[in-house]
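Lecture notes, continued. The same structure-token format from the folding unit now serves as the input rather than the output. Read the line below as a description of shape only.
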């Protein structure tokens, strides 16, 4: 059971004194997503942010005013791709330490990271224990088996199956689309 692979969807509250928490609350109309993140040293990490929305330029201006260690990789009027150097990336270190697989992008809204992971149940439990140990607030939205959403609904699948069986995809066609549609009302 503890070695079962589980999909987990949860949110982590970023401490209010962190600039990313403050910016996500101040610019709550923006879409802020973490596209990748990795550790470059024990006490520093690199995060790739994508910012979208009409206040993107104001967000960038505030970053410059606050002297946040960032490099703008690309920007347009309503979108920016920013590489940010983070100090003491504790959550990132905890994720790396417990070997949890992150599913990107990670959304950031109102001071909370919305994260989806895939990992062994034991590693997820270790990660949540580490969050509790450091008094970091988190909420679990879903934990369970990972499954892909089907591409077709059951009704669409039934129609596709019937189309194959009745020769719709054969050359020449053995049934036309009107005749096929009439069979399904």
């Amino acid at each position: 059971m503890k070695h079962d692979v589980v999909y987990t969807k949860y949110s982590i509250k970023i401490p209010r004194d962190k600039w990313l928490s403050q910016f996500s609350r101040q610019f709550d109309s923006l879409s802020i997503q973490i596209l990748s993140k990795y550790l470059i040293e024990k006490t520093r990490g690199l995060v790739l942010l994508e910012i979208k929305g009409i206040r993107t330029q104001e967000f960038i201006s505030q970053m410059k005013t606050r002297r946040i260690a960032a490099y703008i990789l690309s920007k347009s009027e309503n979108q920016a791709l920013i590489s940010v150097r983070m100090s003491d990336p504790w959550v990132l270190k905890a994720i790396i330490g417990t070997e949890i697989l992150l599913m990107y992008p990670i959304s950031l809204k109102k001071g909370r990271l919305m994260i989806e992971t895939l990992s062994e149940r034991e590693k997820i439990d270790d990660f949540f224990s580490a969050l509790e140990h450091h008094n970091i607030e988190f909420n679990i939205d879903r934990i369970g088996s990972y499954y892909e959403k089907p591409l077709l609904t059951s009704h669409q699948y039934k129609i596709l199956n019937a189309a194959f069986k009745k020769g719709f995809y054969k050359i020449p066609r053995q049934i036309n689309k009107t005749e096929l549609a009439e069979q399904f009302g």
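Point for the exam: Residues 79 and 132 are 35 Å apart (CA to CA).
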